[in-house]
Each structure stands twice: as C-alpha cells, then as structure tokens.
Amino acid sequence: MRKLIFLVFLIALGPVFGQNKDEKQIRAIYDTALLDAKGYDWLEYLSNQIGGRLSGSLNAEMAVNYTKKQLDSLGLDNVWLQPVMVPKWVRGTPEIAYIETSPGKTTNVPVCALGGSVATPATGIKAQVVEVQGLEDLEKLGREKVEGKIVFYNRPMQANLIQTFEAYGGCVDQRYSGAMEAGKYGAVGVIVRSMNLRLDDYPHAGAMSYGDMPESQRIPAAAISTNGAELLSGMLKLNPDIRFYLKQTCRQYEDVKSYNVIGEIKGSERPDEIMVVGGHLDSWDLGDGAHDDGAGCVQSMEVLRLLKKTGYKPKRTLRVVLFMNEENGLRGGNKYAEVARAKNEKHVFALESDAGGFTPRGFNLECNDSQYNLINSWKPLFEPYLIHLFRKGHSGADIRPLKENDIVLAGLMPDSQRYFDHHHAANDTFEHVNKRELQLGAATMASLVYLVDKYLK
Amino acid sequence: MRKLIFLVFLIALGPVFGQNKDEKQIRAIYDTALLDAKGYDWLEYLSNQIGGRLSGSLNAEMAVNYTKKQLDSLGLDNVWLQPVMVPKWVRGTPEIAYIETSPGKTTNVPVCALGGSVATPATGIKAQVVEVQGLEDLEKLGREKVEGKIVFYNRPMQANLIQTFEAYGGCVDQRYSGAMEAGKYGAVGVIVRSMNLRLDDYPHAGAMSYGDMPESQRIPAAAISTNGAELLSGMLKLNPDIRFYLKQTCRQYEDVKSYNVIGEIKGSERPDEIMVVGGHLDSWDLGDGAHDDGAGCVQSMEVLRLLKKTGYKPKRTLRVVLFMNEENGLRGGNKYAEVARAKNEKHVFALESDAGGFTPRGFNLECNDSQYNLINSWKPLFEPYLIHLFRKGHSGADIRPLKENDIVLAGLMPDSQRYFDHHHAANDTFEHVNKRELQLGAATMASLVYLVDKYLK
After folding, report:
1. Cα B286 to chain center, whole Å?
2. Residues of chain B contacting A361 with CB distance shorter than 8 Å
3. What is the domain count for chain A?
4. What does the pLDDT look like over B110-123, one tens digit per residue?
5. Helices (H), B347-434
6. C-alpha angle A382/B34/B360, rounded to 5°?
7. One biological-process term from Gene Ontology (chains A, B) (predicted)?
8. Checking DSSP bridges between strand B408-414 and strand B346-352, what pairing results, if any?
C-alpha cells in the first residue's frame, strides 16, 4: 500500500516537476533579459551609429557587417552571410509639395516619395486634385474625372479597431496599388494619406507597386502626413479647383548584392531539424528603423544569447536569420526559403518579430490544430510575464515563404497602439523604444523557442 | 412538444441575449472613446495650458476651476466643489548639488528636493557621504559612521520584477522614511536614488515624512537622478572621502483651502447607492503631471461622458471625484470618505485610475470572493479589448479611505513598463501619453462601471 501511495505520489508530481523545471528555465530567461540585457545596446548601435538601412544602401551594408560581428562574438557554432540580390531604390533630394490656391499663393505640406515610385519630371508636376476614399472610387469617377489630375487617396485608418494592424490592413491597398490603379485612368500622380492613426506632420513611407505596367505609364506616388491630408481635404471642400505641386527625384537602380545574416547553434539531439528566429535588417530611410525592425533583429539575436547564457542547449538546430529587404521586395525571405528547399533542410519552426519593440502580449500562430493546442497549453507558463494572447493569425512576412506541411510559424505580437505613430516615418527612432519592453519581447520569444524545442513532436 | 422546444430555446438563448446586449453596450463605449474622444483634449489643457498641479499652488486652483467647468458642460445632475485643507509645500529656487573630489574640483549632479523636505541652510550643506542600500544599513553602521554625514540611499528598483509597481514598492521606503531614520543617527542630510528603472538624468520627486520628529531635528532630503547615483557611487568607491554639496530652498507653508471636484449622475433606480470613479487632480511640480495623474482624472471624467453618450442611464448614482492632494497628504481622499460617512452615504463601488495613461491591461480588485468571482466572470466581455488581468491587489490611494464591508474597490491596471521612466519627474509630460492608450483606459473603466451597475447585487 505504501508503495502504491508513493507511486501515485510520483505520478501526480511528475508533470509538476516538469512544470517547475520549465518555470525555472523561463524565469532565468526573463531575469537574464532584464538584468543582463544586450539587445538594447545592439539596437542603440544599429539605430544611432548606423541609422536607416534601406536595401542596397551603405547603411544596410554596415548593418550586415555589424550584426555578423556581434553574432561572431556570441560563440555560436556557425555564422555566415547568405548572398541575395536586392532592389536599390534611392529617395534623392528631399521632396517638395505644396497646395496652390491661386497662382503664387501656396502652402507647403510634408510628403515623401513612396518606395519604388518614379520621380516627377525635374520641374515637378502641378495638377488639380481628385480626392477618393479608395481604389474602388476610381471606377465610379471614370476616366474623364481622373485624367490629367492627381488622385488623393484619403481613407483613414479605422480608429475603433483595437488591433491597429487590422486598421493598417484595411488601408494599405491605397498605398501599394494606388498609383497603378490611378495610372490606368490617366492620373498624373497620386498622393496617399499616411498610414498613421495620429494627426501629425510625419509622412510615412512604404512600398508601392506598378505591377507589370510599362515604365512609360508609371506615375509618381507620394505619402502626405495626416495633418497635410486633413488640410488638403479641407481646402478641396472650399475650392475643388486648387492645384497640388509635387517634386521628387527618387530613382530605381539595378539590383545590388546584399546578404541575410545567419547564425546557428547546432542541435544536440536532432541537428537536422531547424528552428528559425528572425527579424528584418533592412528598414525605411526616413527614421533609423528602431521599431521596424531593428527591434526584431536584436530580439532574435537575444534569443540565442539568452538560451546560451541560461545554459539551455537546444535539441534542434536553432538559427537566427536577419533577413534583408523585407520592406521593398522580400528578397531575403524568399532566398532563405529557396536555399532551404534546395538543400532539403527540414524546418520545423520559425518565429518572427516584426511588429515593433513594445510590450509583448502574445503570439500569432500559423499551424494545425494539434500544434495550436500544444502551444496554447503553455499559457500558464507565460502568465507571470503578462503574456496572454495565443491566436491563429499572420506570423511574419520573412518566414512565410517557409510555409509548408507541419511547420509551425509564429509572430511575436507586441502591444500595437503606438506602432503606427512611428511605422516607416522619420520618428521611428531609438528613443521611442523602451528597454524593458524590448527585452521582455526577447525573453518571450526565447521562452517559446525553449518550449517548442522541448515539447514539439 | 413544439412549445417545450421553444421554451428550451428561449431559456438557452436567455443569457446569450443578455451577453449580446452587454457586448453591444461595451462596443459602443469603446467606439465612442476612440472615434469621439474628449479625455485627450482635456488632458492637453491640464498638461500644456496649466501644467504641474502641486497642492496649494495656483496651478492646482486653475485645474479645479477648469475641470469643474468641463464637468458643468457635460449636463450632469450635480457638479460641486468639496472644500479640503491641503498642505502647501513650495520647492523654491532650483536645487544645486555637486560632488567635490578636492577643494574647488566639483561635478554637478541633478537633484530635486523631496516633497515635504526642509531647506538646507542658505549656504547649503557640504559633508562626506555614506552610501547605504536601505534603512536597515543604518543600524549596522551605527551613529559614529553616520553622524555629520550625508546618507546616500542607493538601493535600485529591482529590474527583473515584471510589474514595476512591485519594484517601486520595494524601494520607496528609502525616499519616504530615509531622512527620518538617518536623522536619528545624526546625519546632516539624505540623498535618495530616484525611483526609476532607467538610467537617465531626471531626478524624481515624491513624498517623504519626518513622522513626529521635532522641527529642529529635521534634515534636508533630495532625490538624485539614476545616472547621478551611479556616478556618486562610482566616485565613492574610488575615494570615500569625497564631499557632497546640496542647496535647496523649499518650504512648508500653512495649510490652504483647496477642493475635490465632484460631478454626478443620479441613479435611476437606486439613487442612494453610490459608485465613484476618480483620479487625483494634484501632481508633482517638475513635469506637467500628464501620466500622474492627469490621465486618471480625464479618464474618470470620460467614464460619465461615455455612458451618457452611449445612452446608458446608471441605476445607481455615479460620481466622478477628482481628488486633491494624493501626492503629499491624501487629504482629498480622506475628506471625501469623512464627508460620505458623516452623511451616511452608501458607497457600493469605487474605481481609481492612478497608474498612468498607458494601454490598459486589467484591474486590481479589493473585494470579497463572491464579488471577485462575479467580476472575473465578465472577462470574456473584455477580451476583445485585450483586457486580461482581474486580480486581487491594491486599488488606489484616494478611494482606499472608503474601504468598509461590502464595497468593491478597483484600480485600473495599465501596462507598467514605462511608468517609472516618468513618474514624479520633469518628463511626466503630455507628449508621453498616447491618445489611443489613454482612451482605451477610459473605455475599459466605463465598461466595468456599466457591468457593476447592472450586475452587482
């Protein structure tokens, strides 16, 4: 009887022992992240010593060299650069835009060329403006009301959506496809309201596309600050005949060679199964890219450092990948997946951080139901760290090309309320990243990697 | 049979219908808070047009008048001022402090007098420094090692605590009681490391007390910035004989008359049962008090506006109370409870917001188990708004004097990671409050008030 009781006791405590070990490992990860941080210092360098890292720029090259050197210093098993050809788009001299109410009577407004846009003629363009609330308005207006004009896309982000990424998703077609669509109706240029929930004076950059439109038909596209958009819209209501002037000198060059930066710890038991953690090293050029996505890069580097520092040796091979060119091409993400497939590498898990360095709230997961249920069962381990959200949803652009049967894709989900105040704008800068928030994100990622490594079948 | 099925159907849908109504009301509250915000504008005025609102100051008086006027404009049933005598402590001319390594060789460091401290002599004090890690070190050192010296309290906030208020609670005794304790050992002054998790140059003010120590024995107390504390500590390690100079001209005046600002909507069914929602109108003087606690005041005002605007008429009387003098006396909170008891008012619920205007995460609750279980059962209604935390814990200083049998006390719990970067310092300013985060907090409070009004027995 005694023996039986003892056995029951052991069985009952079994999962508790396991739990306790996990609790301790996770506690050690968070403690190290908060008491012995490294990610924040790396971000300081990337942001303040290097700055904006647009694909193909000198800064992007410096960031490749700097992060490789930092990974080299961590004592990983392998660190290497994976070559990838990337687009090189250059903004040129600062853009100029103004509203002209009558000849010579002008009001300057803050704009920036959208990434991938063509330049205006050297003397700029000046035309009447037609304001629309989205792509679908063009068909209603028809060619005669659009031809020869500048189309002004002014549908704002929907402020009552709690998750700001949803509000972004509901607007970004104007930026991405606005010029291509307006060009079909004979517009001479487009102005897009910045993807920003706040009213301020920052124009927000971002990628746009002409699809397969011939070069001769491409029209210039620029973002206008939200205050500028409000002003322009208000003035159009008073006088629909006002004109808008835009001058930008941006240019697309030939593709240039760049790199994904990769480091790995070889798995102790299943070295052929690969787990990836990453962010993208490139950024837009207006700010220093601290939130988008310097934060995700240094958090990903931290994951390997935190696991090493806390003495955890992954059973599977753990790779950090700093992807190049997420912003205007996704070449790095595509190249990484292409090479992985060519080498027949088996990827079981990939985690991306690309939603800012704010307080972590949970994860978006792309996986099957049984994988989801497994991950969701770890919720109690995360609750002491105020991590509550485990839901199905978009993981991350750079890891998405890895998607195939059985791989678990995850995206860190930080608090999103402030993100679009800074996203792609001149105020995406280091001082807006809080050290604790950044480091908590890194610890949250490292804890998920630890649990996946240990418990994923 | 048909009838029975229909009946079962009705019963089954009963709670769902109720749920749907609650879901709709709460959705309307959040929509209004985000699409038709008022709190953020009020905060802009309080912060930028008025500024820091230390009890007894002209600014505090202006804030009383401004908020009363705004409440008047909301069409409430009653708005009034509740007189309360408050302490009047004035900082005087900016403090001066430096470290002297040898005669004439000095390094200035940023300090501020702690609230309630006495001044130094007009020529300042200069003395050797003894660094301690807390009050308990004084006994170990004994009078001979303390007498005639400046005691430097340098125990930092514990960075690996996830909830920063816990880290604050673990340090603040140095600030509050440091001078009183050091005075007993013959110290001539105290310098306290700022309650700040970040390394920066802002000294953080805050209340201190001499207990019932005679005036003649009181010694001056100042906070030093965290960078200053690190520097001083480092220099002491190199040379324990360095001297510290401090000059401050602060002064405690006679108590002056001020006010709690109160507005109410009379309950439609149970007017004698009172629900309170509030924050404190006073602040420290170095910044503009936007987070502490301008945010809590305007969120509390918003609660009444949001319920009115969404057409909800409370069954119980709902009061907003903007308490005066939380920071250095709690006179407003005590006065409100005293008057309530004298008038035999029945308070069933009180909710305070005094932890910054950051993204809301949940509530701290002081209540009995059945009340807790009721409130916790509303969790699913809050989840779409990313509100997850319903736990027992400290509600709020101003509403605590109302504590007695059966009353439910609650404190809004925002994300706390950045709070102590700004708390009581010159950088507690409007630009560090995010409009969405502030308004989400107001909506979260209004939703809780709605559910309490509807479902609390």
Report:
1. 15
2. 386
3. 2
4. 999 999 999 999 99
5. 369-376, 379-382, 419-422
6. 25
7. proteolysis
8. parallel
Report yes or no: B91 and B327 within 8 Å, Cβ to Cβ: no
Tokens of residue B416, six digits = 């706390």
Asked which of B249, B273, B295 is the last residue of a domain, the reply is B249
CA distances from residue B173 to A16, A144, A312, B181, B206 in whole angstroms, order as listed: 37, 74, 38, 10, 11
Is residue B437 annotated as a catalytic residue, yes or no? no
Q: pTM higher than 0.90 for the full model?
A: yes
Alpha carbon distance B317, B305 (integer Å) = 14
Q: Are residues B152 and B245 in the same domain?
A: yes
Measured between CA atoms, how close is B27 to chain A, in angstroms?
9
Residues A312 and A373 in one domain: yes
A355 has a pLDDT exceeding 90: yes
Question: Residue A19 — very low, low, confident or very high, per pLDDT cuts 50/70/90?
Answer: low
Q: What does chain B come to in residues?
A: 457
pLDDT category at B5 given cuts 50, 70, 90 is very low
Largest CA distance in chain B: 101
Among candidate residues A228, A252, A276, the one where a domain is terminated: A252
The per-residue pLDDT for range B376-402, each reduced to its tens digit, is 999 999 999 999 999 999 999 999 999
B440–chain A Cβ distance below 8 A for any pair: yes
Give the pLDDT of residue B185: 98
| Distance between CA atoms of residues A225 and A223, nearest Å | 7
Domain, as residue range, for A155: 94-252
Task: Show which of residues 324-383 on chain A sit within 8 Å of chain B, judged by CB atoms.
Answer: 359, 361
Closest chain A C-alpha to B347 CA, distance in angstroms: 32
Residues A212 and A274 in one domain: no
Residue B34 has its nearest CB partner, among A159, A384, A440, at A159
pLDDT tens profile B144-168: 999 999 999 999 999 999 999 999 9
- Beta pairing partners, A413: A362
CA B419 to chain centre: 11
Cα–chain center distance at B434 = 18
Half-sphere exposure at residue A120, Cβ-oriented, CA atoms within 13 angstroms:
27
Is residue A15 in some structural domain? no
B204 with B327, same domain? no
Residue of B nearest to A437 (CA): B417
Among B310, B436, B444, B447, which would you mutate to test the A interface (most chain A Cβ atoms within 10 Å of its Cβ)?
A: B436
ipTM above 0.90, yes or no: yes
